[in-house]
Amino acid sequence: MSGRCIELDLLASPGCWAEVREVRQRVKRLMASYDEDVQDAAVMTASELLENALKYGVAIEGASAARFEMHLDEGALTIATTNIVDSDAEGAALRARIEHIMREPDKEALYLQRLQDFMDTSTVAGGLGLYRVAFEGAFDLQCATGNKMVVVTARRAVP
C-alpha cells in the first residue's frame, strides 16, 4: 500500500460542510484495509483538522478556504490542512498550542484536563479537537506558520 493520497481545495461556502462529510467517507474508503481503530483515528483526524481550517480560516474571494492533503505510504499516514488566518499572531498562537500538546508526555492527562476546563469555565472555547488528535488518534502534530498561512500536519505510523 504505497502512494495513496487525497488532495483537494475547499471553498468557503454553506456547502463546504457537506464536502467535509465526503472527505471523511473518502478517508474511510482509503483506510479500508486497516484495523478499525486506525480507520477511526484517520477519519477523526481528517475531520478535526479540516473543520478547524474551515472554521478558523479566512475566506478570500476566488481562493480556496482550506487545502486538505492525506498521504498514505508504507508505514506512515500524514494528514495536513492549509488555510489563511487573520494575522500572524493568530497563527503563532496555534503553533504554540500544538507545541504545548506535543511537549506533554501524558496526552491522556492533557486531554482530560482540557475537558475539565470546559466543564469548569464557560469562557473556554475551542481547541479540544487538537487534543483528541494527539490523544485518541495517536498522531504527532506540527504547525508551520508565516505570511498569514497556517499548515497543520498530523502524522502517525500505521501497521
UniProtKB/TrEMBL annotation:
It comes from the Bacteria. This is Histidine kinase/HSP90-like ATPase domain-containing protein. It comes from Pendulispora brunnea.
